[in-house]
């Protein structure tokens, strides 16, 4: 999840007035003030009291602040000290961040830097992915909208498009096959024998023996045909699928 935060930066100006008065009271030491005094935020101070105890100082360099300054996390900084040493910087471009920003894995980014350089990119269109997306078995990720733009391969279920599968083919106007799977498509009856031997060898390898030698194998042109044949024969037969599962770290 992407967190967007806004830091508030206040720029204030130290406004003081030096005046003369016959008699008033210092806002710091409460003693009478004669002669010159300083007015700061409606209070009157001896010049020495103001400069030593009241005048705003930079939290970074500890020097007095005159004129404009910045407040961050309730601390005061010279504008220059804040920008150089305190202000948040983008972990991608290194420049300062002055408005809303993104946080990802404890790193901070300008919104544009995050979208263009950090966010995962769609394998179908290469644009950044914000929000929900699809991920197939092969690790390809893509915007959900592409499900309505491109067909899926009837064999591997990849999205058939130029960048993911280098395009694909339509067989008999009924099946969509991607370019990666097309070389393995069985279109002739004499190709069945090789597949028959391969499948039986895999089954024997996992302990399934005494397999009949004359199992009938039919070629179908669409998933609808497979559904029809499966229903007629055994009700829920969906064909043969061979896959490997590897579990890492438990």
Query: How big a fraction of the residues is strand?
Result: 15-25%
Helix/strand structural class: alpha+beta
Indicate the radius of gyration in whole angstroms: 37 Å
Highest-level CATH class of the largest domain: Mainly Beta
End-to-end Cα distance, whole Å, is 26 Å
N-to-C series of helices and strands: EEEEEHEEHEEHEEHEEHH
> What would you call the shape?
rod-shaped
Number of strands: 13
Number of separate domains: 4
- Main beta sheet: 3 strands, antiparallel
Major sheet strand order: 1-8-9
Return residue spans where pLDDT drops below 50 for at least 5 consecutive residues: 1-15
Helical content band: 10-25%
Tell me about this structure.
With 250 residues, the protein is an alpha+beta fold. It contains six helices and 13 strands. A hairpin with a 2-residue loop joins strand 8 and strand 9. The model is unreliable at 1-15 (pLDDT under 50).
List keywords for this structure.
250 residues; alpha+beta; Cysteine Rich Protein; three-stranded antiparallel beta sheet; rod-shaped
Brief overview, please?
It contains 6 helices and 13 strands. With 250 residues, it is an alpha+beta fold. The chain folds into 4 domains: 3-86, Ribbon (Cysteine Rich Protein), CATH 2.10.110; 89-119, no CATH class; 133-184, no CATH class; 189-233, no CATH class.
What is the fold's blueprint, element by element?
Layout: E1 3-5, E2 10-13, E3 16-25, E4 32-40, E5 43-45, H1 47-54, E6 68-72, E7 75-78, H2 79-86, E8 101-104, E9 107-110, H3 111-118, E10 133-135, E11 141-143, H4 162-165, E12 168-171, E13 175-178, H5 192-205, H6 223-233
Antiparallel strand pairs: 1-8, 2-6, 3-4, 4-5, 6-7, 8-9, 10-11, 12-13
